[in-house]
Amino acid sequence: xxxxxxxxxDQAVVREGIVMLLGLLPGIEVVxxxxxxxxxxxxxxxxxxxxxxxxLRMPRCDGVEATRRIRERYPATQVVVLTTYADDxxxxxxxxxxxxxxxxxxxxxxxxxxxxxxxxxxxxxxxxTVQRRLLERVSAVAAPVPARESPPDGLTARExxxxxxxxxxxxxxxxxxxxxxxxxxxxxHINNIFAKAGVRDRAQAVRYAxxxxxxxxxxxxxx
Length: 223
Hints:
By secondary structure, the protein is an alpha/beta fold. The chain is 51% helix and 13% strand. Strands 2-1-3-4-5-6 form a 6-stranded parallel sheet, sandwiched between helices.
């Protein structure tokens, strides 16, 4: 399935570079480019893309407000933030506005493709560093539940292990390498985890894992 994408960035050189990069990636068709948030919202109404790659700091209408308008008016279009900034003042307002993905501009082509596909499938397309930052925020506002002797909600020991690695920000391919299993097996485990835990995406899985004591607080290593 080809994803129809709009790129929104106020810097012409950056915008054109992203468009050029996306043109080389499989499964992505760039259908428009916007110079600011106002233009991005208008293009979504005109072109009905699957995904908008949205910069945050733009004139007239910034990326957070543009994301909010797009998600309110055109809910079939998903937003993946693509920005230089990963600080809390940028990250959390964008997610609250309805962005389903968040990448920094040092992301590679494979990571962009993965994020676009994830949000089109209803998952969260988050960079590993962003997943870790969300975990840190959860740890700061929620008291962890003591670890259980057995996983909750019927999770198997292997599923709990996969979930802990998801919460640490590892991709499916990285999890497969660490556990010496196939990528398809990892995907099956993750689907089972989502069904048993009643979560929709990786961001919710991070919160679930921490609240049920399946992962250690940030700053400790998995052994």
